[in-house]
Amino acid sequence: MPLLDTVDIEILRTAQESTLPDSCAVKRRTSTANTTGGFVETWPATTYTYACRISVNGIPDSFLQMAAERRRTPYILTLAHDADVQISDRLVIGGKTLGVIGFASVGTWQSALRVVAFEVV
Asked: Does any domain span residue 54?
């Protein structure tokens, strides 16, 4: 018998989602052909909007090392476990535009999606 069943996991997810005080807009990158045979990448209007929490605490060491090498401040955003966020997305929260660099949550017991991002300069 597993330690947590689907009901337990759903209770955890609901509790986690009730503690997300902020809102972030997800912008999905699109590529459009230009007149010279290349492509232009843009992040058009908001694809999704989710409740979230933004923090600079709890970032895994591998991302902290990457941030130090690039001299950037990493952020971690916590969203609902089933939020549709991809590595190429941009997240807009509180006047900041962040580029997703990775994820700090995986597994079947995942109660939230934890997205690691840098501010887009």
From this structure: yes
Total number of domains in the chain: 1
Say if 17 falls within a structural domain.
yes
Tell me, yes or no, whether 51 lies in a domain: yes
* Residues 17/51, Cβ–Cβ less than 8 Å: yes
- pLDDT greater than 90 at residue 103: yes
Q: What is the pLDDT of residues 4-30, one digit of tens each?
A: 788 888 888 888 888 899 999 999 988
Mean pLDDT of 22-50: 88
pLDDT of residue 1: 55
**DSSP collapsed to 3 states, 21-41:** CEEEEEECCEEEECCCCCEEE
Q: What is the CATH number of the domain that holds 10?
A: 2.40.10.270
